[in-house]
Amino acid sequence: EEATWRYPSEEMFYNAMKRKGWKPSANDMEHVVKIHNAVNEKAWAHVMAWERRHCERCPDPKLLKFRGRPKDYSPKAQFLNFLGYKLPFDRHDWIVDRCGTEVRYVIDFYNAVPYGGNAPVAMHLDVRPALDGPSSAWDRVV
């Protein structure tokens, strides 16, 4: 049985935000969910760019699971903050199934300045394999 990732409905997203202590407006959920989904698609495109290095061995990697870790700053984010940069507003760890091998990716989400001032929201995604082993370290070096 193939499991397919499904994005949350507006109601599910609204309830999740409330559980996390946010004060969302139900009227904004359509736009918030669209932005959320677009950002996740962009993050997945970044993951797939890394995964292309392994396409001969695994042509069809899949997202296995993910975990939001908004206040658990990655070592890279902490180092950049030490140098004077702002901390990310969110972090996710995504576990990708690379044809039987689990590979963790770290995604730091940063606020950014909208290009040309026309976009309502802009962000920068720093997506990379976690340094969990030699293979991931090698991927990040070459």
From TrEMBL:
Lyase that catalyzes the covalent linking of the heme group to the cytochrome C apoprotein to produce the mature functional cytochrome. It is an enzyme of class 4 (lyase). Belongs to the cytochrome c-type heme lyase family. It holds the Pfam family Cyto_heme_lyase. The lineage of its organism: Eukaryota, Viridiplantae, Chlorophyta, Mamiellophyceae, Mamiellales. GO terms for cellular component: mitochondrial inner membrane. GO terms for molecular function: holocytochrome-c synthase activity; metal ion binding. Keywords: Heme, Iron, Lyase, Membrane, Metal-binding, Mitochondrion, Mitochondrion inner membrane. It is found in: Mitochondrion inner membrane. It comes from Ostreococcus lucimarinus (strain CCE9901). It catalyses: holo-[cytochrome c] = apo-[cytochrome c] + heme b. Its main location: mitochondrion. This is Holocytochrome c-type synthase.
